[in-house]
C-alpha cells in the first residue's frame, strides 16, 4: 500500500467514530434548510480549538460539524466536539445555584437565588480575609475554556490574594517556563509549514489534540512525505505509522533525551554555525553528555541502543524537524531535566524558530495580559505566593496543587481556609486523591462553579451553575503561546440561571471588592482584550480568529531573550536560582520495589477529556468502563483474561478497572484509564470517586523541586484479578 493511501486510511480511522455518530442522526437533518449555521470554535474544555459549524433550530443545537475554513482543523472534528452540545440539554445539568444544607459531602442542597448566592459567597470570603488575610483564600482553575482563567486571576489580584491554583505543573507550564529560561520563549510545534520529520515525544494527538496542534494538520503533512518518530510506551496509531518507534519505559524521558544529545554531539551531527553563534555552554554540554551513551541509557529506557542511535541520527539529519511533545514528559519529578534536554536538542540541530520546527509564535495585537489581570495590584506577588516558600523555579505564576494542599492541611507557609473553584475537579485530577479529599474536608468554605455536579462539587458550600461554551460570547487561546486567539460567539441562550463564568466573576468581583475594577456588563472584558487590534468583539467574531505575523529566526536581529542573548545549553544563572547547570539523569522517578514489579502509566481516551464527559451517553457507550491495557503475556502470567475486573495496586492504594489485552503495550507496563468517576453514583458517596480513580495510586510526597510536579508516570505497581 502506498504511503498516501496508508495515511488517508489513518485519517479516516481517526474520524470514523465521528462519522458514525453523524450517520446515526442523518435522517434528522433532511430538512437542513431550516437549520441556522453559526461559526464558532470548540472550547478549551474540549482542548484543541477546532473551528465548528453549529446547526441551530429553535434555540437548540441540533448538529455540529467541522468548519472546512478552520485555521487549525480544516474541517476535522473529534467525537468530543460532536457530542459537546449534549451537555446543554442533559437532564443532570446544574440549572440553579445551590447551597449545602447537610453535612459536608452528604449531598443535600437547597435552591437559592443568584443575589443570595453572591451575598453568601461575598460574606464568607471576606470573613476569611478579615481573619487570615487575603492570602487565606485560593482561586482554583482546571482546564481553561477561554477567558475565564484570566478573569479569575484578575479577581484574585483585586481581592488581594496571590494564590491562583492551576494544574499547570503537569500541563505545559514546565515546557513554557523551562523554554523561557533556556531560549527565552516557549517552543511550540509549527504544523503550518512543512516539516521533514515530526518526533512525537509522548504525544498522541489523534486522541488528545493538544492546544494549537490538531491532528489533521499533521496527517495532511504526512500525505506530503513528512516522516515520524514515535516515542511512547504504547504503540499508538501514529507510533505504528512511524519510521522509528521507541517503546520507552515510562518516566525515563530525560535519560533518552540525553542519549540523543550524546549521539548528535559525539558524531558531529549538530548545526555548527548555529552552535558557534547562538548557543552558550556547548563545550560544557558536550563533555557532560559523554556519559549518557545509548548503551547505558538503553538499560534505563528499555529502548535498544541501535534504535536510539538510528532515531537520533534521523532527527539530526532531517531539516526542518519538529518535536511535538506531550504532557507525559511533565508527569514526573524530572520534568525540568527532560524539557531542558529537548530544548538543547532542538537548538543544536538548528530547529529553533524555523518554519516547520519548534517556533516562537508571535501573538496578535491584544491587551497586555499583565495589565488585564491587574498584576500591578500585588507588586510583591511573586514573593507571597505559596510555592515561593518551597523554592520553585522563578516565573512560575500558578500555585501547584501539592503546595495549595499543604497550606490547607499544614498551614505552611500560612493558613489557607477558603477556595473558589471553577471548571476543575481536583478529586479526580490532583495527584493523591485521598489527600485532596482531606483538603476539601478541612476548608472552612468552598465554592464550585461547574456544569454538572462532580465529586468535587459535592463537597462545596455553594455550587454555581455555569453556562457552556455555546451559550455566551468568549475568546479562546488567549495567553496560550500559540500565536492566535479564537472567537467563540454565542450560539444559543443558556438556561435562565446558568451564567458564564466571566459573568459570575464580574458580579462576584463587584460584591467582594470595591467594584472599581469591574464592569456593568461582563462583555466589556471581551472588548478590553481585542481593543488593541482595532476591532470590536463583534468584528473579531466575524473574522473568526486573529493570528500574529509569521516571523522566523528573530534571533538574527535581536538575539534570544536570555541573560546571554543565546540559547543557554548551560544556564548562566544556575547558581543564582540553585538550578542544575546542565540537564541530568539522576535516577528513575521511583526506586524498584519487588512487591510492585510492573510499571504504571496512564493515558487519556479520545472519548473523554480528563474527568469530563462521563455523563454524555453517546460517548459513554464507546467507553462504558475504565479499561486497563495489559500485554497478553503479562495477563497470562497473572491469570487475567479480556474483560476481567482487575485490581491495580501501588504503595498508595488500589483501584478496580477492566482488563483489555493488547500487544501494543510493553509486557512490563500497565496502562490505566484516567479520570474515572461514575455519574450514575450518588452525591453522598461523591459518585464513587475512589473506585477506579487513577490518582488513588499516585502521591504528592515526592515532588520535583522546580515545579512541584508529582510522579504520575513510572510508578511501581502490581495487578491481579479481582
Explain what the structure shows:
- The chain is 31% helix and 17% strand.
- The chain has 722 residues and is α/β, with parallel strands linked by helices.
- The protein folds into 4 domains: 3-87, Phosphorylase Kinase, domain 1 (2-Layer Sandwich), CATH 3.30.200.210; 98-172 and 364-543, Rossmann fold; 187-359 and 554-577, Dimethylsulfoxide Reductase, domain 2; 598-721, Barwin-like endoglucanases (Beta Barrel).
- The strands form 7 sheets. Strands 5-4-17-16-15-6-7 form a 7-stranded mixed sheet, covered by helices on one side.
- The longest helix has 21 residues, at 3-23.
- The chain is globular.
β content, as a range? 15-25%
Share of helix among residues? 25-40%
CA-atom Rg in angstroms: 25 Å
Give unreliable regions as ranges.
24-31
**Arithmetic mean pLDDT:** 92
The total count of strands amounts to: 27
Overall SS class: alpha/beta
Distance between the termini: 44 Å
Describe the secondary structure blueprint for this structure:
Layout: H1 3-23, E1 36-41, E2 51-57, E3 60-66, H2 79-83, E4 98-100, E5 109-111, H3 114-132, E6 137-141, H4 148-159, E7 164-165, H5 173-182, E8 188-189, E9 197-201, H6 205-208, H7 215-223, E10 227-231, H8 237-241, E11 244-246, H9 253-266, H10 272-278, E12 279-280, H11 282-288, H12 294-301, H13 305-317, E13 321-325, H14 335-348, E14 358-359, H15 369-372, H16 381-384, H17 401-410, E15 418-422, H18 426-429, H19 433-442, E16 445-450, E17 462-465, E18 474-476, E19 484-488, H20 501-512, H21 524-530, H22 537-543, E20 545-547, H23 555-558, E21 567-568, H24 574-577, E22 598-603, H25 617-620, E23 627-630, H26 632-637, E24 645-650, E25 653-661, E26 669-673, E27 715-721
Amino acid at each position: 500500500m502506498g504511503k498516501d493511501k496508508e495515511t488517508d486510511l489513518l485519517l479516516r480511522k481517526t474520524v470514523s467514530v465521528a462519522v458514525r455518530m453523524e450517520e446515526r442522526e442523518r435522517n434528522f437533518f433532511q430538512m437542513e434548510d431550516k437549520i441556522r449555521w453559526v461559526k464558532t470554535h470548540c472550547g478549551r474544555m474540549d482542548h484543541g480549538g477546532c473551528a465548528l459549524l453549529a446547526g441551530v433550530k429553535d434555540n437548540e443545537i441540533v448538529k455540529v460539524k467541522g468548519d472546512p475554513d478552520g485555521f487549525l482543523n480544516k474541517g476535522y472534528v473529534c467525537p468530543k466536539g460532536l457530542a459537546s452540545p449534549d451537555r446543554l440539554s442533559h437532564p443532570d445539568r446544574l440549572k440553579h445555584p445551590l447551597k449545602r444544607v447537610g453535612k459536608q459531602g452528604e449531598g443535600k442542597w437547597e435552591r437559592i437565588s443568584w443575589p443570595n448566592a453572591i451575598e453568601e459567597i461575598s460574606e464568607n470570603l471576606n470573613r476569611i480575609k478579615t481573619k487570615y488575610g487575603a492570602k487565606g483564600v485560593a482561586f482554583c482553575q482546571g482546564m481553561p475554556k477561554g477567558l475565564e482563567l484570566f478573569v479569575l486571576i484578575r479577581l484574585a489580584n483585586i481581592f488581594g490574594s496571590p494564590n491562583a491554583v492551576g494544574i499547570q505543573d503537569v500541563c505545559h507550564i514546565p515546557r513554557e517556563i523551562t523554554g523561557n529560561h533556556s531560549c527565552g520563549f516557549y517552543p511550540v510545534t509549527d504544523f503550518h509549514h512543512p516539516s521533514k520529520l515530526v518526533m512525537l515525544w509522548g504525544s498522541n494527538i489523534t486522541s488528545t489534540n493538544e492546544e494549537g496542534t490538531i491532528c489533521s494538520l499533521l496527517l495532511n503533512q504526512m500525505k506530503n512525505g513528512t516522516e515520524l518518530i514515535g516515542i511512547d510506551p504504547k504503540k499508538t496509531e501514529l507510533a505504528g505509522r512511524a519510521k522509528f518507534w521507541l517503546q520507552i519505559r515510562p518516566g525515563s524521558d530525560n535519560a533518552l533525551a540525553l542519549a540523543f544529545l550524546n549521539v548528535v554531539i559525539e558524531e558531529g551531527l549538530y548545526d555548527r554555525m548555529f552552535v558557534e553563534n547562538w548557543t552558550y555552554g556547548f563545550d560544557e554540554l558536550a563533555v557532560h553528555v559523554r556519559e549518557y551513551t545509548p548503551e547505558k541509557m538503553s538499560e534505563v529506557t528499555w529502548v535498544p541502543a541501535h534504535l536510539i542511535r538510528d532515531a537520533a541520527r534521523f532527527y539530526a539529519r532531517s531539516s526542518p524537524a519538529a518535536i511535538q511533545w506531550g504532557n507525559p514528559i511533565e508527569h514526573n519529578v524530572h520534568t525540568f531535566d527532560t524539557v531542558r534536554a529537548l530544548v538543547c536538542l532542538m537548538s543544536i540541530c538548528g530547529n529553533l524558530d524555523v518554519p516547520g520546527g519548534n517556533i516562537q509564535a508571535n501573538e496578535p495585537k491584544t491587551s497586555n495580559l499583565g495589565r488585564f489581570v491587574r498584576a500591578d495590584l500585588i507588586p510583591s506577588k511573586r514573593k507571597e505566593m505559596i510555592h515561593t516558600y518551597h523554592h520553585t523555579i522563578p516565573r512560575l505564576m500558578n500555585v501547584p496543587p501539592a503546595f495549595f494542599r499543604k497550606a490547607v492541611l499544614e498551614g505552611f507557609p500560612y493558613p489557607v481556609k477558603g477556595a473558589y473553584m471553577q471548571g476543575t475537579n481536583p478529586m479526580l485530577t490532583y495527584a493523591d486523591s485521598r489527600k485532596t479529599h482531606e483538603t476539601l474536608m478541612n476548608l472552612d468554605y468552598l465554592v464550585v462553579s461547574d456544569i454538572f455536579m462532580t465529586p468535587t462539587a459535592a463537597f462545596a458550600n455553594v455550587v454555581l451553575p455555569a453556562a457552556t461554551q455555546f451559550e455566551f460570547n468568549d475568546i479562546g487561546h488567549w495567553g496560550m503561546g500559540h500565536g492566535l486567539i479564537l472567537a467563540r460567539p454565542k450560539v444559543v441562550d443558556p438556561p435562565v440561571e446558568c451564567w458564564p463564568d466571566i459573568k459570575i466573576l464580574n458580579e462576584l468581583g463587584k460584591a467582594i471588592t470595591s467594584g472599581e475594577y469591574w464592569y456593568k456588563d461582563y462583555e466589556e472584558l471581551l472588548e478590553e482584550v481585542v481593543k488593541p487590534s482595532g476591532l470590536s468583539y463583534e468584528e473579531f467574531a466575524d473574522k473568526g480568529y486573529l493570528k500574529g505575523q509569521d516571523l522566523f529566526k528573530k534571533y538574527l536581529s535581536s538575539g534570544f531573550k536570555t541573560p546571554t542573548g543565546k540559547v543557554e545549553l548551560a544556564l548562566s544563572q544556575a547558581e543564582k536560582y540553585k538550578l542544575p547547570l546542565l540537564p541530568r539523569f539522576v535516577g528513575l522517578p521511583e526506586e524498584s520495589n519487588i512487591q510492585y514489579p510492573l510499571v504504571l502509566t496512564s493515558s487519556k481516551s479520545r472519548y473523554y477529556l480528563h474527568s469530563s464527559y462521563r455523563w454524555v451517553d453517546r460517548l459513554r457507550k464507546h467507553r462504558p468502563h475504565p479499561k486497563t491495557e495489559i500485554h497478553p503475556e503479562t495477563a497470562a502470567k497473572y491469570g487475567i483474561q479480556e474483560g476481567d475486573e482487575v485490581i491495580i495496586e501501588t504503595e498508595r492504594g488500589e483501584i478496580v478497572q477492566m482488563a483489555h489485552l493488547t500487544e501494543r503495550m510493553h509486557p512490563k507496563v500497565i496502562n490505566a484509564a484516567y479520570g474515572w468517576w461514575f455519574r450514575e453514583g450518588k452525591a453522598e458517596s461523591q459518585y464513587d470517586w475512589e473506585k477506579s480513580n487513577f490518582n488513588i495510586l499516585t502521591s504528592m510526597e515526592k515532588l520535583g523541586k522546580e515545579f512541584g510536579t508529582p510522579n504520575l508516570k513510572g510508578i511501581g505497581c502490581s495487578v491481579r484479578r479481582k
